[in-house]
Write a structure and sequence with these properties.
The protein has five helices and 23 strands. By secondary structure, the protein is α+β, with helices and mostly antiparallel strands. A hairpin with a 4-residue loop joins strand 7 and strand 8. It holds the Pfam family FecR. Keywords: Membrane, Transmembrane, Transmembrane helix.
Amino acid sequence: MNEFDKQHTIAKWEELLRKPAKVTETREFPSWETVAKRSIQFEYLPEKSSNSNVVSFFRRPLGLAVVGGSTLSLAAALFFVFLMNSNPSETNHSDLAVAPAAKTTQETSSPLKVIVSSVKGKVSVLPRGSSLSVPLVKKYQLASGDVVITEGSSQIDLDFETGSWMRITPNSEVVMDLIEKTNEAQSQKFSVKKGKLFASVSKLSKDSQFVVQAGEHLTQVRGTVFSVQFDGKSEVVAVREGSVAVGDLILTSKQQTVIELGEPVPSSATPVSPKEDKELKAFQTQTILARESMLYEEHARLELVRLEDGTELRGVILGQSETHLHFQGLDGLIEIPIQKILETEKIR
């Protein structure tokens, strides 16, 4: 049974467990008040205990019992004498090896939640360890080692619990090499075997990583909107916002690089082509709208928080303390200092 079938089966079981059986629904059960008024039919009468205070778990000859009791008495006496003669002050502390308990703090990793947000056309996933691909559907959770395959005119959007967003375009094959997290960091590694992906990556913590491999090179991200394309002969990395590192080359806003297979990374970047810039802009806008729609579906409202420095944050106000506003933004939960807020506004 593959991962898709497992999730489908579990969902069916959960649905069945929510409903009581038909027999249970048709029967009338007495209330607690009725049961409390009923007379006792079977009264509990404990057996009379024997006069002996000795509890025996097995039978044995009396002679053995006497010998065993004497032996235990002698051992107890010797132990008492040993305690009386021992002197703590004369203990040789040099002979004692006291090893302090070492406190090991080994962090355990767990799967990072990456959910299918939308599917257009025919998209399938090859689960890790399986030779049979299954169709991808909305709300499917991907795991490390899964391979996402899109056919012609199909694409898929992935929603990361970190606030990041990824789109895999038609005729692509992308491997989810590693999508895990600990209490302190997230590890996100992907391989583009063919095709193209767009990604909007939320700001990463110090020890977190978001890496995409295409061809012979790695693209490392800290927080940006970018694309990676690979056709088997060349790799194209383009950036709309933020910065990425391709080898020793740093790409910033509206820059790109083209790397031919077998060739080193160019020493300098080039401007993003008009076609790529248009596609990146469309992806960024569609990502924002998709995140807003998801928040609206969950909370039935959408709000705008405008800060003193002109920054505008779109999302949902969850509450506030004396000093901070609890805000669910497009990139996740944040705490906004109240003194920095200029005004709030309801969008819808």
